[in-house]
Design a protein that fits this description.
This protein is α/β, with parallel strands linked by helices and about 600 residues long. Among the domains are: about 160 residues, Rossmann fold, CATH 3.40.50; about 90 residues, ABC transporter ATPase  like domain (ABC transporter ATPase like fold, Up-down Bundle); about 130 residues, Helicase, Ruva Protein, domain 3, CATH 1.10.8.280. A five-stranded parallel sheet has the order 5-11-12-3-13, with helices on both faces. Strands 2-1-4 form a three-stranded antiparallel sheet, with helices on one face. It has a three-stranded antiparallel sheet with strand order 7-8-9. Helix 15 links the parallel strand 11 and strand 12. Helix 12 packs antiparallel against helix 13 and helix 14 runs parallel beside helix 15.
Length: about 600
């Protein structure tokens, strides 16, 4: 039992493609989980261990807080033991609004605020007076954003249209919307006349805005100070305080910031506003008192505009002036950022502009400064996009997390990261199946009797190349008559092979009773008349047929008196006998039928 307390024990994990996986992960060490894509390593680490840790951690909070926290379903697993609170460091974008910067994310800005509040001259007050996220330290003109969104009336209004025609170019002020009704259907409210139908409207909804007088246009854009009445959607009347288009749109869509709006509202607002640098703070976000407090001529905005590498050198130069933990704490945080190859960043850079790899390294740096121990840090391929030199720096950060008494669990493919692991888990099949062997080609059945060769074609000699592959169907065909080369009146030869080899495509000498062979021509000629000294054969050949009337091939009862092909064809590599039997053949001279079948299989 004591051994089990030193491991995270996972029993019967079935998340996604897992099939009842049992696993033991040692605590307090650096473990790397490897495996091919789709093997299930992310399902084990993120879908099972991380989800269950966060789900159980949320259960300790009251119901009021749980309703505001992310909800996690119980993973498909029989049992998980010895879990520690998990901190996931993934590659998702850091995000954040316009008030989130590299300095606020890494907790370097709070240290600089303490430094300026103690040693800056003149002092602006406590450290929160140097924060652009605090009402005491932010610029009153831009509310600490460094830029102002100014409404462009020329982009907002279409002077050629009326209110009923959609003269206000904003999706939330389109015809039929609630905001449109507060200008196109309103009348001045007078007590006791709420139900009167003859009240004069404030604006003529059918009048183009270009025909409005200066007073009407000012009332539409900036009017205030009176109540209006209009019919609502339920047959009643609605009484509201009048607010011009410009202050309403600024309060509702510009002041909160574009990042806080929905996608549709943000796109509509971006089309009618212009972003400009704040003229009062010139983009520094801070109040005038905070900007006037300086150390050696530099204020806190100047420090935030410097690259981290240059800021480290500047703080090292002034670190000998003041004793205390403030400057060493700032230098420690900045050096950690520099150690992961991010010395080119500035503290005032918005976090929404960081890449996934930059955000993941900044998250790691932030956790290194934490005093918590006994935690489980889970990383998702932290070396992606890093230079090999930066991978070595990342490895040192991961080892520092482990040395502080934490469990580090990494999903990784990089060999350099795997090399520093104390424990490696490779996810995949334990014994890969052997490669499938192709079945051998079917063996043709053995012929039951001697196979008689087919008679040669009297028109074209058989040029079939020798082959060992035969069509099984040919062995069940009725045997052809055995050709002989001797005269019927002569005795047979002393020995005749049972299965002679197929005839070869060789030229045969002319037989004594055969017609002379004419030279090859496009059309055959009639044979010349026999010579007077030529002996008349026992069975004279039939007369040649005229060329205009095709007929059957001539027959010769005497096998020795074979007619010669008058029009031979050039030899080819196509197996004519196999083609007549319906088999697929190849035209390559070096490949016979059996070899061609094997190539097709491969």
């Amino acid at each position: 039992m004591g051994e089990d307390r030193q491991h995270i024990v996972v029993t019967g994990a079935r998340t996604n493609n897992l099939k009842g996986v049992n696993l033991r992960i040692p605590l307090g060490v650096l473990t790397v989980v490897t495996g091919v894509s789709g093997s299930g390593k992310s399902s084990i680490v993120f879908g099972t261990i991380a989800v269950e840790s966060q789900r159980q951690l949320n259960e300790v909070f009251p119901a009021f807080i749980r309703n505001r926290l992310p909800r996690y379903e119980r993973p498909e697993c029989e049992l998980i033991e010895n879990l520690a609170p998990a901190i996931i460091v993934d590659q998702k974008p850091v995000g954040g609004g316009t008030r989130s910067t590299v300095g606020t994310m890494t907790e370097v800005n709070p240290v600089l605020r303490v430094l300026l509040s103690r040693y800056g001259e003149p002092s602006a007050g406590p450290s929160n007076f140097y924060s652009f996220n605090d009402p005491h330290g932010m610029c009153p003109a831009c509310d600490g954003l460094g830029a102002t969104l100014q409404l462009d009336v020329d982009k907002l209004l279409d002077l050629d249209r009326s209110l009923n025609e959609g003269a206000i170019r904003h999706a939330n002020f389109a015809v039929g919307t609630n905001y449109w009704k507060r200008y196109a259907q309103i009348s001045r409210y007078e007590k006791g006349r709420a139900r009167d139908t003859d009240l004069e409207p404030v604006f003529d909804p059918d009048k183009p805005l270009g025909q409005y007088s200066d007073e009407e246009m000012d009332l539409l854009l900036h009017g205030e100070g009176f109540e209006t009445i209009r019919p609502d959607d339920f047959g009643n009347v609605a009484i509201n305080e009048y607010e011009g288009v410009v202050p309403r749109l600024t309060r509702r869509f510009i002041k909160p910031g574009l990042e806080s709006l929905k996608d549709k509202e943000r796109k509509a607002t971006e089309q009618v506003v212009t972003e400009r640098t704040c003229e009062e703070c010139r983009g520094a976000r801070l109040s005038r008192a905070a900007l006037e407090s300086r150390i050696d001529g530099r204020n806190i905005a100047d420090y935030c505009e410097m690259e981290i590498g240059d800021l480290v050198a500047e703080l090292e130069r002034v670190s000998d002036r003041w004793a205390g933990p403030v400057v060493p704490a700032a230098l420690s945080s900045l050096r950690r950022i520099q150690s992961v190859g991010l010395g080119y960043l500035t503290l005032n850079r918005p976090t929404r502009t960081l890449s996934g790899g930059e955000g993941q390294r900044l998250k790691t740096v932030r956790h290194l400064g934490s005093a918590l121990t006994g935690m489980t840090y889970i990383f998702d391929e932290p070396s992606v996009g890093l230079h090999p030199h930066d991978v070595d720096r990342l490895n040192r950060l991961l080892q520092d997390l482990r040395d502080k008494g934490n469990t580090v669990l990494i999903v990784e493919h990089n060999r350099d990261v795997i090399a520093i692991a104390d424990h490696v888990i490779d996810v995949g099949p334990a014994h890969p199946p052997p490669p499938k062997e192709r079945p051998p080609p079917p063996t043709p059945p053995t012929p039951t009797g001697p196979r008689t060769p087919e008679p040669p074609n009297p028109r074209t000699p058989d040029h079939r190349p020798p082959t060992n592959h035969r069509d099984p169907r040919t062995y069940h065909q009725p045997p052809h008559p055995q050709p002989t080369n001797h005269h019927p009146n002569q005795p047979p030869p002393p020995h005749q092979p049972t299965n002679p080899p197929p005839p070869q495509p060789t030229a045969q000498p002319p037989q004594p009773h055969a017609r002379p062979r004419p030279p090859p021509r496009p059309r055959p000629r009639p044979p010349p008349p026999p010579r007077p000294d030529q002996t008349t054969p026992t069975n004279p050949p039939p007369p040649s047929q005229p060329h205009t009337t095709p007929g059957p091939a001539p027959t010769n009862p005497d096998p020795t008196n074979q007619p010669t092909n008058p029009d031979p064809q050039p030899p080819t590599t196509t197996n004519q006998h196999a083609t007549q039997r319906g088999l697929h053949t190849t035209t390559h001279p070096a490949i016979h039928l059996g070899t061609a079948a094997r190539i097709g299989e491969t």
